[in-house]
Give the backbone structure.
Amino acid sequence: MDIQKLIDQGFAVKEYPKDSIIYEPSGKPRFVYFIKSGEIRMVTVSDDGKEFIQGVFKTGEYFGEPAVLIDRPYLAYTIANKDAQIIPVGKIDFLNLLKEDPDFSMDLIKVLSNRLFYKSMMLEELANEKAEHRLLTIINYLFTDLEVGTSLTVTRQELADMTGLRVETVIRGVKLLAGKQLIELKRGKIIKR
């Protein structure tokens, strides 16, 4: 969905400072959130306070639609990684957008399919006890839409949060993968080759 199109239709842009919570688990789904600028992480939090990243959403993307579509409570926190401008679109307006714009409907199907694929892949990987294997799988997945020579923009901490590993394990694992020439490192950045 073109963000400018939403603005032209009169949807308001709301500011969220870094680290602010957009919604919490068990919250009633009222909006689908379109990101005009910024970055949002979706996380679940364990009883001991450890975050597990379910997804990261960037400028031009949207989130919150599964709960809105099936009218079920949100299952995770969404938190601004950096200052963000977001357009909240209510359920009725969102459903109307889907009805009126077949291209957007197809985009939504692809987005949901990609997320389902990611969740399935991560469930399989979390069952694997080998940290290196988990890391290599998530790195290769994150490379999917990047061009050769481009570096990953995720931090070691984010890789840890995505794989359920400790950050120290990720740091060691990345070095081991680079040593085995399974990934390329340049100045500490993981580069797609």
The chain has seven helices and eight strands. The CA atoms of residues 2 and 60 lie 7 Å apart.
